[in-house]
Amino acid sequence: MKKTLAFFSLLLVMGMGFQAQASKYKIDQTNLDQMMVNAHQIETMSIFDLPDVGTMPDNQKIAAEKDPVVALLVCTFLGWIGGHRYYLGTKTVNCLWYFLLSCIGVGGILVAIDWIFLLIVVIDKKDLSPYIDNPKLLMWTDQL
Asked: Is residue 44, in this structure, part of any structural domain at all?
C-alpha cells in the first residue's frame, strides 16, 4: 500500500511540474495565420494507387541482373526466412510466410524444394525468369 501511495504521489508531483511548464508557451496567432497562408497542400497516396503489375518491368530484363548461383547460396543460408525469395524480387509477405512456416517445421520442406529447383537452374543453365517476382508462395508450381 505504501508503494502504491508513493507511486501516485510521484505522478501527482510530475503532473504539476508539467502543468507549470506548459504555461510558458504562448501562441502567436498572426504567425500561425501566416504559416497557414504560406503552406502547401500535400497529396496523400493510398496503397491502392500503386502501379499495376502490367507496368512493372519485364521479368526477362530483371532475370539478366539476377545470378542463379547467388540465389542458390542465399537459399542455402537464409532460405528459412525466405531470403532467396527476397533476392528474386518477391514481395515481403512471402518471406514472412517462409519464416512463419519454418517456425512450425513446414518451411524446411519448402526451402528444400526451392533449393532443388534453383540447383537445376544453375546446373542446366535454365531460365531464371519464372522465379523472378513470382507472387505465389510455391514459386515452382508452374514448372512441374
From this structure: no
